[in-house]
Amino acid sequence: MAIEVVVGDSASRLKSLRLSALKDAPYAFGAKYEDELLIEDTQWQERLKNTYWCFVVADGVDIGLLAVDKADKDRNSDCWLSSWWINEDFRGKEIPQLMLEWVVKLSKENQWQIIGLGVWPENLRARSAYKKLGFVEADKPLPSRSKPGQMYLGMYRQVK
């Protein structure tokens, strides 16, 4: 198992993995497979420029994805995680810890102290996984940017 930091020439690879994630777990994301399927290659390329991305690779196959952005002021954190997904065949292993180690290293390089992410309140499996990684839930849900009318739960972790 290895983490690969995504570079500028990986747009088609990013698109493929992101679409796999949305198809596998549509309940977990704010985006919809049908919408992201229509995104032009140039927009995927832009996503690579504006966000830190990593893939998890097992035996030459992409099995996981994670995006990290500098957080907006209203996120109550220094960086914000999104698109976190692991292929179902590989869940329940130590892969989330491996991905978090990459985020912590990136955070230290950027002098970020608080890592944040959002999760749908009903996604109990994800909430449990994030808690095992040291994330703490916010006191109350917040309005979603990607799904108007829906609330998400912020979860936060100190960089150590």
UniProtKB/TrEMBL annotation:
<dbReference type="InterPro" id="IPR000182">
    <property type="entry name" value="GNAT_dom"/>
</dbReference>
<keyword id="KW-0808">Transferase</keyword>
<dbReference type="Pfam" id="PF00583">
    <property type="entry name" value="Acetyltransf_1"/>
</dbReference>
<dbReference type="InterPro" id="IPR016181">
    <property type="entry name" value="Acyl_CoA_acyltransferase"/>
</dbReference>
<feature type="domain" description="N-acetyltransferase">
    <location>
        <begin position="1"/>
        <end position="158"/>
    </location>
</feature>
<protein>
    <submittedName>
        <fullName>Acetyltransferase</fullName>
    </submittedName>
</protein>
<dbReference type="GO" id="GO:0016747">
    <property type="term" value="F:acyltransferase activity, transferring groups other than amino-acyl groups"/>
</dbReference>
